[in-house]
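anyone seen this seq b4? input:
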Amino acid sequence: MLDDNHFMKEALRLAHLAYDAGEIPVGAVVVWGEKIIGRGYNQVEQLCDSTAHAEMLAITAACNTIGAKYLMEATLYVTLEPCLMCAGAAFWSKVGRIVFGASDVKNGYKRIAGTQNPFHPKASISYGILEQDCAQLMKDFFAARR
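predicted toks r here
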């Protein structure tokens, strides 16, 4: 049986693609059952689109894969705590479960939403999966640019 670590490793692989492309290294996958139905990594610079976050691209790909706008049975795995925009996308697509690796105290949803849950009320949230690996990739990215 595939677990959270397995799918977070795939999101982390995608984050490395973002890193290699000079993008902030965030990767995301959407899983339905044990099958990945959507993948994405940050492409903000490449697409000149401030909404081209990993989560947004993965959610769009997942919806296209299943031919529906709701992902109630799906899990979104993302290497970094979603921003408020991406939390909103997860809300509107009704993602059933959100799993993220590292927290983002500067731009994550918790900074703006505080104690309010920005996700769908039925969604469950888990965090800290491969947290050190996810956080280290971010640290390495920004250290290389200083």
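The longest helix spans residues 4-20. The CA atoms of residues 100 and 127 lie 5 Å apart. kinda curious what u guys think
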